[in-house]
Amino acid sequence: MQPGIGTRAGAVGLRAAFAALAVLMHVGLGAAAAAASVASATRAELSGDQTRTTFLLELTAGVTAEIFTLANPYRVIVDLPDVAFRLPDSTGQNGGGLVRTFRYGLFAERKARVVLDTNGPVRIERAAMTAAPKGTGVTFSFDMVTTAPESFGMGTGADKVAEELKKDAPPSDAAGAAKPKRPGKPVIMIDPGHGGIDGGAVSATSKVLEKDVVLAVAKELGRQLAATGRYDVRMTRASDVFISLDQRLSLSLKHGVDLFISLHADTLPEHNVAQTIRGATVYTLSERASDEQARRMAEKENASDLVAGLSSAESGDDEVTGILIDLMKRETANFSSDFSNALIRKLKQSAALSPVPQRAAAFKVLKQTHAPSVLIELGYLSHPEDEKLLNTPAWQKKMAGSITGAVDSYFAKRTAGSPAP
Ligand SMILES: [Zn+2]
User: Fold this and answer.
1) Cα of 264 to ligand 1 centre, how many Å?
2) How many domains is the chain built from?
């Protein structure tokens, strides 16, 4: 990796912490009530121009906020404790001044985050948390001003923040400590993509979020697999929380999984194509993408960490990629493609398949040397029919049923075809 701006050295600009104000006392909440209540964000606003832009967030109570900047792409990150966002749906989509768009949501358990995508390098000024004039809550605000790329993020503790991000434990429902493997039962890990601050793709008309659709299918799949009694089922996430791609990989390793199934849903940007292309696609890992669309798909899914405000160093898009794939046992790759074949056979019976339903690309979450893994794009949220189906419990059930059938036939073949170890 080359040093300099845009990689590790430029990762962090400014970090400022603000103590909570004594607002709670003014409104007369007791300590117990205050601890139980969660601050809500009720309004978010951008103002200013291309040289100085103010971000303002109205909160029902004072909190401790941390602000830092990231390069590649340029972003401003605001970390907050358990803040509930009660903002209008389109908040942040249009941006303003130096900010193109911003998004917000849970980053980890009891940790919220706002990520602002800026037009270029900025530095933070005049950050403050003040009691609102009418005494109903707190106004948190800061200014972003343009700065030169050379002076962006110099000597401001990039490593410290990276360290802290590393420490973020996976959520408890992802079983922080690996449960011992039950003897004899294959461990299957279901990996619903995205989550929390990273919503994934957004559907064309009803604005359904990929993170919600894939979680619903993942839970149904988990139920059906567990109901067979043949598998030990684990999930990378079982709630609406962000998990980095690295955390997903390490969970898989920690649980010693025998099969890893990542669930996603795609969108196509081109309107004319989006109206015609639909159906499921199964991806396996390959350093060389099978085609241009597969390559773009992997690029989009691999950007999940950047969407959530991890630094590019932290998201690990790095030079070990090639080595990892070289190390991956040929056997693991063969098993992945066996499972992909089983999936296509089963899915064909119950769901629409995309025009090229078996593809390969360098998906980071599939870079597992220890377990066969596939990534299923369940359908296209940009197609009206798929959009409707993906959000329908009956369809989700059917889809989960087909995947369960494929898991069954995959393991039946492995047990029949190989002598006991
Ligand atoms: Zn996705």
Assistant:
1) 4
2) 2
